[in-house]
Design a protein that fits this description.
This protein is of the alpha+beta class. The protein has one domain (about 5-225). The chain has five helices and nine strands, in the order ααβββααββββββα. The strands form two sheets. The protein has a five-stranded antiparallel beta sheet with strand order 2-3-5-6-9. β2 and β3 (about 80-90) form a beta hairpin.
């Protein structure tokens, strides 16, 4: 007896539905909306200091808080095993990191740095700074009589180092220039069992701000030694 094409396609349809439904509740649009809410729908404002000026070599060209795209890195459909690796790659507006860095520099500018400046003008240009993360999902399914599926979901930072060029001037005369690199210490962070992607994203963004502050402190200490 010949099996109908509908009967042959049914297991494949069921497999696809099972596999793609594991993280289907998270979309690029939803992630951007949540990140915007986290930052109260506005970019942070820089608290300027007269003798310290912070700019970026790559200024933001739009006012969006973040821009997320869905990326698929692997789709392996076999007879009894399926593997689907994909992620939501979220690029934060560069102004967020640069402004947080600038405010951290101003708040952490120790007495030692202030004494080193001694009325001189310090210009800092942020050449590179961590400003993205991904929610990664590695999904698996084994099709025997029934479909058994599981997934490893985690948040992956872009792990960029902080790179800043500095320029010290006095009365428009160049005194010293240099570049400082602070290594990133960010690591992948697993999403806990039963933890929602919203909760995990909130935790990551809080850690992201804390890590950036720590990197800025290292930068300020090294800058003070070099001046």
């Amino acid at each position: 007896m010949r099996t109908s094409s509908k009967g042959n396609c049914l297991p494949i349809v069921v497999a696809l539905i099972t596999l793609f439904s594991l993280t289907s509740c998270l979309t690029s649009k939803k992630l951007d909306k949540f990140v915007a809410e986290h930052y109260n729908h506005e970019l942070p404002k820089q608290k300027k200091k007269v003798d310290i000026v912070v700019t970026s070599s790559q200024p933001a060209d739009n006012a969006a808080i973040s821009t997320t795209v869905h990326q698929t890195s692997k789709l392996l459909p076999l007879l009894v095993y399926w593997n689907y690796n994909h992620k939501q790659y979220c690029s934060l507006n560069p102004a967020i990191a640069v402004t947080n860095f600038a405010n951290a520099v101003n708040s952490q500018a120790s007495k030692g740095l202030t004494q080193k400046l001694n009325g001189q003008r310090l210009e800092l240009v942020v050449d590179q700074v961590p400003s993205a993360f991904s929610i990664v999902s590695n999904e698996h399914m084994v099709w025997l009589i029934y479909a058994f599926s599981w997934a490893k979901i985690y948040i992956e930072p872009d792990k960029k180092d902080l790179v800043v060029t500095y320029r010290l001037t006095q009365a428009d005369q160049l005194q010293k220039t240099g570049k400082i690199t602070v290594k990133s210490t960010e690591q992948n962070k697993s999403i806990r069992y039963f933890q929602s992607w919203k909760s995990a994203t909130s935790e990551y963004l809080a850690d992201y701000n804390a890590n950036l502050t720590a990197m800025t402190k290292t930068f300020v200490n090294q800058l003070t030694q070099e001046l």
